[in-house]
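[Automated response] Your request has been received and processed.

Submitted sequence:
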Amino acid sequence: MIARRPTRFGRPGMGAYIPADVPGLLHPWNSTTQPVPVPPGTPAPPVTQTLDLESLANEQEGIFKSYNGRSLAIPDQPAYDARPPYIEMPGGGQPYFANSPIQTPTNDGNDYTVVSFTLPFGWDGRIDKLACYYTGPGFIPGSGFLTWRLLKNNQAIKGYDAIQFCIGAFGQGGIQPMDLSHSPIRTYAGETISLVVNHAVASTLPIVGTFVYGIIGGYNYATK
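Generated structure:
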């Protein structure tokens, strides 16, 4: 016979029908330590694996990485069968040989453009030939009388920001530019490339009947 316990309202509650020792044996369900109870006969859920975000990121990087110019993320980008296009000119590449002489500028310490060009949009490229030369007498390499600079968008390219000697081979057969193919300068669409010369104020070089030459050579290739 189960004894009934009075409630605060004077009538038996649900606890009146539960043996006194049962509540002490029950424990509240903890979702963090105990599995969710499922009705009998319910199929077991599939086994799940811990998501490795680092492995997933590496996998996606491999999928979308550009191989020889082709990328699954950019399917319209041209594919190059050989080496990357900035290492070896691909089919459809356009070589260029920009050159220009200017009369030796006055010795006012300002920069004067010898040769300049802008890469068209949709085309990247590289510079692998360079020459600069003064035709008059009395030029001493390293004297600082003449300083050439190679610029990208009016910013000097590191290593080509203070050239105080002639570059290239010069003779009766003409000018042979220096070969930069072992360490070419990469160029990108929309960039303006310029070779400028600065004639120092302290210079004693003659300017009448003398010229400064500049040559920039390389190739461009389509990027889309």
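Summary generated for your ticket: The two ends are 90 Å apart (CA to CA). The CA atoms of residues 7 and 14 lie 9 Å apart.
If you did not submit this request, please reply to this message.
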